[in-house]
Amino acid sequence: MEELAFLENASASFVDLEMSGPPANPLPFGRATTGRAERVDAMVLNPVTGEHLEVSNIIYERHPDRRPPDRAYWVGRKLKKCIFGVVKECTLLRFRNDALVPWEVTSGKAAVKIMSWQKIRELQHIEDPIKEVSAMQYISEGGQHPHVMGVLDVLKDEEYLLLFMPFCSSGDLFGFVQQAGRFPEPMARYWFMQILEGLTHLQKKGVCHRDMSLENILVDEYRTAVVIDLGMCLRVPYDDGETGGVADVSAGTLRRLINPLIPCGKPNYISPEVLKSEVPFDGFAIDLWATAVMLFIMLVGLPPWEFAREEDPRFRMVARGGLERMLRSWNREISPLAADLLQKMLREDPRQRLSLEEVKVHPWVLYEGGGAVPQAPGHEEWRG
Known about the structure:
By secondary structure, the protein is α+β, with helices and mostly antiparallel strands. The chain has helices at 2-10, 14-20, 117-123, 129-140, 173-180, 185-204, 272-276, 283-300, 313-319, 323-329, 336-345, 356-360, 363-366, and strands at 35-45, 52-61, 72-82, 85-95, 103-116, 153-156, 160-166, 207-208, 217-219, 225-227, 234-235, 238-239, 246-247. It folds into two domains: 2-27 and 169-366, Transferase(Phosphotransferase), domain 1 (Orthogonal Bundle), CATH 1.10.510.10; 35-166, Phosphorylase Kinase, domain 1 (2-Layer Sandwich). The longest helix has 20 residues, at 185-204.
């Protein structure tokens, strides 16, 4: 039943959604759940060398019933700054139940976003990290997905909110494009298909990301693309199937269009209907639009436009079916199949764009020409 409902939504047209019911506001996410953070200095065993080392800045969840923690995080080097604080790399520790040397180093890594409560209070009107935590916990229900960033632990103390996540060691996909200039089509397809799997998971959960971009795709050590940054996402409304009211994705019905909202996201990637902010929009369609822009940049090495507005001559050319002509003028031609896919995903009218299911069965996506698994850039970086 759930799979049938997903397929119906993944193939639904804008017209289908207009007939599903009146536009609605996004649904709220559930309340974020947090554990109590305990920060200690302790002895740690290196199981490879047998050495004991006293280390500082070990964080774990303090359970009310005082049962032993499941794991701990040895917080290490700074990876980057973020709006509310800093992101750091962590080493996962295993509890040994030994009073003298209570922890043991493992090969596991994590990243922690350390957010100041003071900063959260000051800037919550701009961006709400509590909502991002709620969304990530919602997305992670039922287990981690390989192509969407999930949550390991969410802890707090008097000063900080601590969001622990899987560690991605190879930077973001935008860095790969910058290094390469542009991708050969087999490499672009390799990444694009993984991004589509991430979108599929979000759609199955009834979530619109709203900020899809190459900068928001991290790459792990196994060359897996992971969608990150759910700070702007929306929980899509669905028809309740009975009274004409609004339900969530679990209703197994068609989703509704969403009432206009203030535009957000990175300018290159925002769809024209969201930029205008005058008419209802389809949450899934705007993510697919941004994904098409991502594919364009991977294949061409440049963004298609600054803003998807009539005033931009590049947008006007693509909107009128001239994508291939524009690329010939740039001396950046791509295959006819790739151009066909992009042209059909980047139609100005959302009623004419491809659905997720149509994108997945497009001949360019299904092409079996293959290609080598891409290599990471020469430096390691985690960007969240």
